[in-house]
Specification:
Shape: globular
Number of helices: 1
CATH class: Mainly Beta
Strand content: 35-45%
Number of domains: 1
Structural class: mainly beta
Distance between the termini: 53 Å
Mean pLDDT: 86
Length: 163
Amino acid sequence: MFAVPENTVVLSLKPALPNPTAIVRSIAADRDRWAHLLRYDPDTRWSGLIERTDAYEVWLLSWLPGQRTNLHDHGGSEGAFTVVAGALTERVVRIGRGVDVLHSLKAGQTRVFGPRYVHQVSNETTDPAVSIHVFGPSRAEMTPYRLDPIEGAVVAEAAGPFG
């Protein structure tokens, strides 16, 4: 019989988030579950908690024209977000590389992210937008970044929840 020494087995320190795309799409499709929570804030993106479990949190966000996050990651959290109304633009920047990609997202489209995924989300349109985000195991404190023209994403000073 083959035996593996105990100290050579890598055990996950945290359980993996169960299919974030399935979670966020299921909740987005159940409008009665979140529509009554929706608000708009003229000064900043609005966010409201839809659901919290031991494995993940689900948040509803509204975006008026011109509202955006700063460039950030979600610490050790992973997850996904779906646009449920309007359109959003996601800018993805790699750490230590000058790679900068824009994704235009319309209602029904989903983006997935892992730990240390650096991005900025904005509403570049003239209409409000709404999105639903799932974070696992929870919405962690975000790491802010600044964009260096050569290095790409470089850690900046601290930011709050949702950049």
